[in-house]
Amino acid sequence: MMTSGKPISKELIQKIREEILKGKSKFQVAREMNLYPTTVYEHTKDLPNKYHREPYISGKPLELLKQLLEKGYVYTEKNRNALRALQRYFPQIKRSQFKGKSVYYLEDKNKLAL
Fold this sequence. Notes:
The protein is an alpha+beta fold and 114 residues long. The protein has helices at residues 10-21, 26-32, 37-43, 60-71, 80-89, 110-113, and strands spanning 73-76, 93-98, 101-106.
């Protein structure tokens, strides 16, 4: 039975933190100590996750990035969110409007794109 919304002791918080620092996942600690996962997450926000990964690009954004690198531009009305996500990682990707549609291009390929 999981503990309810009652405050937990400083000793228990310390024990949770120690288990996380030993290499256990936050979910695993919650399960072993019979706590709600949100309780464990709340008291260990400042600690890294066991499964923390570096950000990476995959799927449709990766396909669009390949097109950008090959052609220098992508003319699209779809995939706006994927392209905007790429812009966060690569500020060299610019956007212009042409006939009501967006053209995403690499900064140094603007003449080719337009």
